[in-house]
Amino acid sequence: MQSDEGTTSTSGAPAPDPGVSAHHGRRGFDVLFLLQHFSTEAERYADQVRRRYGLAHKDVHALNEVMQANRAGRPIRVGDIARRLVLSGSATTTVIKRLVSAGHLVRAVDPRDRREVSLHATEQAYRSGREMFSAMSEEVLAVLDDCADEEIEVLRRRLPQLTEAVRRAGGRAGEAPTAADGGPGEGTARGTADAGAPGAPPRAV
User: Fold this and answer.
1) Phi, psi dihedral angles at 13 (to 5 degrees)
2) Is the pTM of this model over 0.85?
3) For the chain, which end, N or C, has fewer CB atoms within 10 Å of the first or last residue's CB respectively?
């Protein structure tokens, strides 16, 4: 929503338009919106397919976190999932129990520290993931097939950097004061965390 034309501040200077970002005009600002639209559509796709497999929104994200860790060969525990998804311990436990019951996850003693229990995705989880994201993979790869090698290299180099930038932004947002701390936006931070960020693109599982 834009401010009324001709609005001025108490100092007599034109008041800033609340509908205009402070970053408006910076190089690549329009690309930011293109990325946002892409991530929104990817999230909408994930919501459509997860329902067919009886998975909740947080189930998909928790499963993705476990799969990413498994592929990287690093242990991942319930506490790690809670921090990454900004969930309470009890809510995370409920998600993990649901995924274990569905046959998507198993718990195993961490060989590096036998006091800890790590999470591992099952073959069923990988099979379901391939089925869920098959259509999206086909459509996106068809577009990438038309890209020149140089364009693919740019994407390969820049997308991880953009992903890390969003991760850093998430860390900064988590440190921002909430209404409980005397900051603006009562309930906003907790409500967003509980609902899940709609702009976060799902990773193909």
Assistant:
1) -85, 150
2) no
3) N
DSSP assignment, residue 198? Answer: T
**Residue 24, exposed/middle/buried by CB under 10 A (0-12, 13-18, 19+)?**
exposed
User: CB within 8 A of 66, min separation 6: which ones?
Assistant: 76, 81, 105, 119, 120, 121
Which of 53, 61, 37 has the alpha carbon at shortest distance from 194?
Answer: 61
Residue 131 has pLDDT above 50, yes or no: yes
Please count the other Cβ atoms lying within 10 Å of the Cβ belonging to residue 193. 15
Least Cα distance to 199 among 44, 58, 31 occurs for 44
Q: How many residues in total does the chain contain?
A: 205
Token reading at 104: 């998507």
Burial, 74: exposed, middle or buried (Cβ in 10 Å; 0-12, 13-18, 19+)?
exposed
User: How is 84-140 classified by DSSP, letter by letter?
Assistant: HHT--HHHHHHHHHHHHHTTSEEEEE-TT-TTSEEEEE-HHHHHHHHHHTHHHHHHH
